[in-house]
Design brief:
Chain lengths: ~325, ~325
């Protein structure tokens, strides 16, 4: 298979997956016993309001028409309106998404750094106590429910580090005087550290295992032997010759783990009351605000599809042999 | 009368390895890792089966002060409703393990059928089934589970079905690969030449060869199903009428156990989940590696549908 064929094929797959996701989303939210409007938890809503809402949502039309309407709206970037606040779903989700992204990125960085260090150490000292300790440690983190790990960190770590455990910013900041940009950034970071650390630890175990096994394979290669025979230091052998090659599968796996990262982030944000997309989802579940839930699910799915595609293409760029 | 005696006197056609020895020689006992996992899992199952026999009445009943610390009366203290944590944990084990085993069985069934059909029939069926699997693989599992649970209600059966229906993809892929290789083996070809039907080939000749791998995979699925239950329950989508480990974590969180510094209400349920998941992972991985040594570079992990590293063979040097 030629390179361009591969790229075209992956892009085509991603586009079809987007349609599958949209259709699945439509079907899921239309197979309810009632519909989105009757499921809404709202005491003040009059029957007139509900009838009006149904008309607005196009629920009085045929299913096929509804589907077409849904796809058409999506194509125009319209995810509908929240039943609760009447705000457009997109603008309701955009701000939380902006909060979630840096937290998830920081958490992923944590896990990559810890995971690579531990994984390389384990592979280098394979079979020794270091290796066993690293393996067992990562397996243990791999087995912990994220929300529980978050609670453990609040309970045992937050106090010692003196870091805030809820919210995204200090509510007293800016009441007496306008804070400098630097103060604001530090405040945001302080609130971000613990959720990101939790996410990082949840992923840490898996990344360690992957890096370790990938490193073990690489360290057995001839060019590593050559590097050592040349008289290179251990440091240069491991980091320059070993790790650079071992990172290939790791990169794809990091991108592919996004689906799980996002899922874990939902409960972690809930634990830390971090106003991201996860907390928004929890609130939407609580209120049975289906348009928000639907929009959030779609956004998460799109981002996972996008990063999968990015990983495929990146892998192709790094290792053209993938098409064979 | 005589016929019966005659039958019993017929010698066995071939010497069979005694059952006990066969069991003891199986890969479950081959590695320390899987043996440890098995023992832990069996212990938890025993507690879940026998423990509730000694518990009378509702475990959530208020029997002591709210968030009482561990004492000789309440070994692990009480929760936010004044209920005994030990009793809650024992009952929780029952529900959590039930969800784990039942959901794993559902996904093993779906994944097994799809994998077997896809690998055995091949051709268009294979393409269609694997395409579907690919699409389901990409959709983020946990958000999907949350959405489905939010839409379809909160009974235990629903939760089991939701988890089971979402986690079949890895089983399907794994079994498809294995089926494809078994299908080409000489004994299957021979049976086919003798005129065995496809159904018979699948059920009598291919399926038995798949069983070990399917079991290994199902053990891994149990871990994930227990894990997923804590997730769904934590978001308030669990069955309100039962006590599971996931619910205990959720209760501790919503009852502000942290503000009350009641570590005994939060730590134990999470530790239980971690230990059981760890045990299943150890056992499942060790089994899978011994049943499927050819998948050396890695294969799909149940946990997150990605490549899972397989420990390379010992002789690296």
């Amino acid at each position: 298979m030629r390179g361009t064929d591969y790229v075209v094929k992956r892009v085509f797959f991603a586009v079809v997956t987007v349609f599958v996701a949209v259709t699945l989303n439509f079907i899921l939210f239309r197979t309810l016993s009632g519909d989105a409007v009757s499921a809404l938890r709202c005491r003040q809503c009059t029957p007139q309001f509900k009838a009006y809402e149904r008309k607005q949502l196009g629920l009085d039309q045929s299913k096929l028409k509804q589907y077409w309407l849904y796809v058409d709206n999506l194509a125009h970037g319209d995810l509908g309106r929240s039943l609760r606040t009447q705000e457009p779903v997109w603008s309701t989700l955009w701000d939380p998404l902006k909060n979630t992204m840096p937290m998830v990125i920081l958490g992923t960085l944590f896990s990559i750094v810890f995971g690579v260090i531990t994984g390389v150490m384990c592979a280098w000292r394979r079979g020794t106590g270091t290796d066993k300790a690293g393996l067992w440690g990562s397996l243990a983190f791999y087995s912990m429910p994220p929300q529980w790990l978050g609670l453990m960190i609040v309970l045992f770590v937050a106090g010692a580090l003196g870091l805030p455990t809820s919210g995204i910013k200090d509510p007293t900041l800016g009441i007496l005087s306008t804070p400098s940009t630097w103060t604001v950034i530090v405040d945001r970071l302080r609130h971000m550290v613990l959720p990101a650390l939790t996410l990082g630890l949840v992923l840490y175990g898996e990344y360690t295992l992957i890096v370790r096994s990938s490193m073990l394979e690489t360290l057995g290669e001839d060019y590593v032997l050559t590097a050592r025979a040349k008289g290179l230091s251990n440091w240069a052998t491991v980091w320059k010759h070993g790790l650079r090659n071992a990172m290939l599968p790791v990169i794809t796996l990091v991108a592919l783990s996004l689906g799980f990262i996002i899922g874990g982030a939902i409960t972690i944000e809930y634990v830390f009351s971090y106003p991201g997309i996860g907390l928004e989802i929890v609130e939407a579940i609580d209120q049975r605000d289906y348009p928000i839930l639907q929009g959030a699910f779609l956004l998460l799915t799109f981002s996972v599809i996008f990063f999968n595609l990015a990983a495929d293409l990146l892998y192709f760029k790094l290792d053209p042999r993938v098409t064979e | 009368m005589t016929a019966v005696e005659q039958v019993s006197e017929v010698p066995a056609p071939r010497a069979r390895v005694p059952r006990l020895r066969r069991v003891l020689e199986s890969p479950v006992f081959a590695t320390k890792q899987s043996l440890a996992g098995l023992i832990i899992l069996v212990l938890f199952v025993l507690v879940a089966l026998i423990g509730p026999l000694f518990i009378h009445g509702d475990v959530r009943e208020k029997v002591g002060p709210v968030f009482a610390p561990p004492s000789s009366k309440f070994w692990l203290g009480t929760d936010g409703g004044g209920a005994d944590m030990v009793k809650l944990l024992v009952m929780g084990a029952r529900v959590s393990l039930l969800v784990g085993f039942a959901a794993a069985a559902v996904s093993a069934l779906i994944g097994g059928v799809i994998g077997l059909l896809s690998g055995f029939v091949g051709g268009k069926t294979d393409i269609v089934l694997m395409r579907i699997t690919d699409y389901v693989l990409v959709i983020p599992d946990i958000p999907l589970m949350i959405v489905v649970a939010a839409l379809f209600g909160r009974s235990l059966t629903n939760i089991i079905l939701i988890i089971g229906v979402i986690y079949w993809t890895s089983t399907a892929r794994l079994l498809r690969a294995q089926t494809k290789s078994i299908r080409e083996r000489v004994y299957v070809q021979r049976a086919r030449a003798l005129g065995a039907s496809n159904t018979r080939l699948m059920l009598r000749h291919v399926l038995p060869q798949l069983t070990p791998l399917l079991i290994a995979n199902t053990v891994l699925l149990i871990a994930y199903a227990i894990f997923a239950e804590t997730f769904i329950t934590f978001l308030g989508l669990g069955d309100p009428s039962v006590v599971s480990w996931g619910r205990l974590i959720e209760n501790a969180f919503t009852d502000d156990a942290i503000l009350n510094n009641a570590w005994w209400a939060i730590v134990p349920p999470g530790v239980c989940v971690t230990i059981v998941v760890l045990a299943c992972t150890m056992m499942g991985q060790a089994l899978e590696d011994s049943f499927n040594p050819r998948l050396r570079s890695g294969h799909l992990s149940v946990r997150r549908f990605r490549l899972r590293p397989v420990p390379p063979p010992r002789e690296v040097e």
